[in-house]
Specification:
about 200 residues; Glutaredoxin; 2 domains; four-stranded mixed β-sheet; binds glutathione
Amino acid sequence: MKLLGSLASPYVRKVRVVLAEKKLDYEFVLENVWSPDTTIGLSNPLGKVPCLIMEDGGAMFDSRVIVEYLDTMSPVGKLIPTQGRGRASIKCWEALADGVLDAGIAVRLEMTQRPENERSPAWMARQMTKVKNGVQAMSVGLGDAPFCTGAKMTLADVAVGCTLGWLAFRFPELTWRDDYANLARLFDKLSERKSFIDTVPVA
Ligand SMILES: N[C@@H](CCC(=O)N[C@@H](CS)C(=O)NCC(=O)O)C(=O)O
């Protein structure tokens, strides 16, 4: 398998962490989707990473579909239950973590890709509210538990860890570590894992 991705993308990181936790072999191919000569469109018509190229040459996206597929490829380090409320709960955690990223990335793109006079402060504020409310919801959901859905690490923790790591990387001014000690504790614990150490975001 080949994974097309970048070293900064939190969605790509989520897939890389899952590949590492499940001990699956793959080739990592760097793809700069913002470069004028990117070829990502040949594999993903949406022009986004991550994109997984499977053994038969077929392409798969997006990150939620890829991690779900990868979890079925090996019984090692099962991250998503196969059915029921537990499964839905973990997918909902992932939707929350990815939703915070979607809002945060929208703000970052506004700040980095748009001239200052074309930016909308009201729209950026709306997105930042989603980021802050989403992080608060993560803290409430985690409570005093060791991991997002209980005693065992699942995809929920991988997704939350990648989101918090990206916020620390791109929005270091946000005070989630001070505001939510339980998220800081979870993040520090995840950050000790090889899968997280090997995928720390790089600009
Ligand atoms: N929902 C997608 C989001 C992927 C995404 O937005 N990736 C960004 C990099 S962080 C990208 O490729 N953006 C290029 C673009 O929006 O044109 C997923 O989970 O894979």
